[in-house]
Amino acid sequence: MNAVSTELATYNFAYLDEQTKRMIRRAILKAIAIPGYQVPFASREMPMPYGWGTGGVQVTAAILGPDDVLKVIDQGADDTTNAVSIRAFFKKVANMAVTTKTGEATIIQTRHRIPEEKLTAGQTLVYQVPIPEPLRFLEPRETETRKMHALEEYGLMHVKLYEDIARNGHIATTYAYPVKVEGRYVMDPSPTPKFDNPKMHMSEALQLFGAGREKRIYAVPPYTEVVSLDFEDHPFEIQTFDKPCALCGAENVYLDEVVLDDKGGRMFVCSDTDHCEDRRDHGHCGTMLAYDKETAR
Amino acid sequence: MTDTQIFSGAFAEPVFDAQAVFRTVMDCMARPGTIGTISAVAKPPQPLGAAAGAVALTLCDHDTPVWLTPQLAKSKLPGWLAFHTGATVTAEKQVARFAFVEKGGVVPGFDMFSQGTQEYPDRSTTLVIEVDGFDGGEPLALTGPGIRDEARIAPAGLPEAFVSLAQANRALFPRGIDLILVSGDEVVCLPRTTVIRNGEA
């Protein structure tokens, strides 16, 4: 009797009921079979508001099993609100093993970054996506954007990038930079900085995208061509940074600006906290970290 | 007349077994040509095999009309599917979300099933076909998304015209059917993106 009542009080494994999981799983398989195409799915209400990663959470809940190790990042960081609460959610509803180490994770749910460490074949990256439709701000009607994808009519997107050049002299889009997947579908890589776009190309890891409010799932299988849209005379370029990370000295990584005081003081640090910590553990040292050590002495 | 065969043979641990089977199928769909192993045990009525039964239990429910070969349709499988998954059996290939072909069964032309529309290419049939094995047959060379260079399998027991059927299906992209091949406890997925050629080395 006691055992029964305990059973009743618990959630189904990974929160979602089995019928919902089957529905999401079927959508995931179709998404993998049609790379870059947004598969409609019956997104459920989740115990968190839209915009907090309900799409990513549903995808993660549908794929994870007891053997998985979960990592959640929010703008590259393991220790921000969204990441901490989603990690706690899956610990509670699925008793998941969680980690902050990129290399140890089998499933990485991410909000708007791809880890600096190269992902491997055994890993799945799950993106939280706010607006899955790359053409939405150019054409608000779903009936029209659907037709444009059907006819592979992406001229409007090139006009948008061209207008960037006409106004600013260069392509000013810095995040959610549109990509073409396997030469067919134009896809929104979710609002990751364009710095991360090249990591999606021929990635060893499976990449799944979940948009909860917009009720869409899409995917990029491993070893799939993901090409950022550009022009011959204005080729795609990623952001570059003048200085290395102030804490770990890393170069060629994506940096966040941190304002230090009201007198113009600032520092640039790795957005990927795990990558930064790992480098510091291995003895790498940036300018600000060295300074700290000396003053502490 | 009741038959116990209909009421038994589902997963021992429905939640975890379905998850394990799905992950195997997902990984195989993401890496066409990779042979996955289905560890969860399903015992569907003869003549359907264990792996195909496991796929049915994992993916089928009341939202997914299922098409069966005449041989399967007259077996106890429709009752088994209805009891364990809630899926209805349809005679219309165009409305089926999944289709099952037992080992040695005649594989209908892929174009008879739903291929989705240009606007909704996901509304297509997934075919689950039992083969004799993944070696010893005609060698196939696979390229496309999910494959770094080239993958090779040699499934035995596919229809003779398989390569031309698959090439015609590929030409329809983004429309087209997706294939799940099973044999014993092994599974290979061939999504519509995979380019399949005769692989005589």
From TrEMBL, chain A:
<comment type="function">
    <text>Catalyzes the breakage of the C-P bond in alpha-D-ribose 1-methylphosphonate 5-phosphate (PRPn) forming alpha-D-ribose.</text>
</comment>
<comment type="similarity">
    <text>Belongs to the PhnJ family.</text>
</comment>
<dbReference type="GO" id="GO:0019700">
    <property type="term" value="P:organic phosphonate catabolic process"/>
</dbReference>
<keyword id="KW-0456">Lyase</keyword>
<dbReference type="GO" id="GO:0051539">
    <property type="term" value="F:4 iron, 4 sulfur cluster binding"/>
</dbReference>
<dbReference type="InterPro" id="IPR010306">
    <property type="entry name" value="PhnJ"/>
</dbReference>
<keyword id="KW-0408">Iron</keyword>
<keyword id="KW-0479">Metal-binding</keyword>
<protein>
    <recommendedName>
        <fullName>Alpha-D-ribose 1-methylphosphonate 5-phosphate C-P lyase</fullName>
        <ecNumber>4.7.1.1</ecNumber>
    </recommendedName>
</protein>
<dbReference type="Pfam" id="PF06007">
    <property type="entry name" value="PhnJ"/>
</dbReference>
<keyword id="KW-0949">S-adenosyl-L-methionine</keyword>
<dbReference type="GO" id="GO:0098848">
    <property type="term" value="F:alpha-D-ribose 1-methylphosphonate 5-phosphate C-P-lyase activity"/>
</dbReference>
<keyword id="KW-0004">4Fe-4S</keyword>
<dbReference type="GO" id="GO:0046872">
    <property type="term" value="F:metal ion binding"/>
</dbReference>
<keyword id="KW-0411">Iron-sulfur</keyword>
From TrEMBL, chain B:
<dbReference type="InterPro" id="IPR008772">
    <property type="entry name" value="Phosphonate_metab_PhnH"/>
</dbReference>
<dbReference type="Pfam" id="PF05845">
    <property type="entry name" value="PhnH"/>
</dbReference>
<dbReference type="GO" id="GO:0019634">
    <property type="term" value="P:organic phosphonate metabolic process"/>
</dbReference>
<dbReference type="InterPro" id="IPR038058">
    <property type="entry name" value="PhnH-like_sp"/>
</dbReference>
<protein>
    <submittedName>
        <fullName>Alpha-D-ribose 1-methylphosphonate 5-triphosphate synthase subunit PhnH</fullName>
    </submittedName>
</protein>
